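hey
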């Protein structure tokens, strides 16, 4: 695959959920030089490292944790990304307020996992890296009732300053849809503990 494909993972502070998405996706696409993954926050703790609870789970999963620095989303960042995965519906709303033209390629990570299940294999490229939003980034069909985002089913819980079991829950809620994506693309599942 010759052209670059960029994935942007977004949460609030860019220190818990979006770093987990970023580093798991980067691990999944490590063999694909043409896929670039980064993360940012809608109200970022700019300059901070990821939280220890996130770092620990990524290390257990075998994903890289070094060199992380939180940063704020910008309209340019949103306009330039090929696929944008937010942790919650609120993040999606905030991002689309800044860059409404990004709507066809902006999803919560959990909703994207459900949509991925409906992409037909013949809608994916037959050679090279299968682009993650191929099919999903097209004009959206009306989703089946079961895959429409609703309530907490589409949001990843925020573990910031909460007990370890909430970090476990958030990590599971990120790993499950990324696993669906990996399966659809015929890739190894993300390295979730």
């Amino acid at each position: 695959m010759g052209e670059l494909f960029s994935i942007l993972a977004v949460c609030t502070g860019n220190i818990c959920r979006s770093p987990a998405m970023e580093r798991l996706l980067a691990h999944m696409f490590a063999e694909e030089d043409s896929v670039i993954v980064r993360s940012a926050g809608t109200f970022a703790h700019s300059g901070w490292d990821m939280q220890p609870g996130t770092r620990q789970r990524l290390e257990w999963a075998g994903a890289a944790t070094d060199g992380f620095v939180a940063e704020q989303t910008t309209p340019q960042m949103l306009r330039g990304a090929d696929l944008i995965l937010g942790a919650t519906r609120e993040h999606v709303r905030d991002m689309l307020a800044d860059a409404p033209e990004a709507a066809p390629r902006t999803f919560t990570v959990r909703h994207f996992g459900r949509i991925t299940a409906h992409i037909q294999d013949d809608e994916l490229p037959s050679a090279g890296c299968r682009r993650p939003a191929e099919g999903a980034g097209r004009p959206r069909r009306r989703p089946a009732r079961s895959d429409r985002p609703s309530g907490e089913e589409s949001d990843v819980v925020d573990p910031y300053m909460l007990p370890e079991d909430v970090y476990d829950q958030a990590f599971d809620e990120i790993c499950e849809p990324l696993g669906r994506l990996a399966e659809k693309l015929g890739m190894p599942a993300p390295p979730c503990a």
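The first strand starts at residue 5 and ends at 11. The chain has a mean pLDDT of 85.
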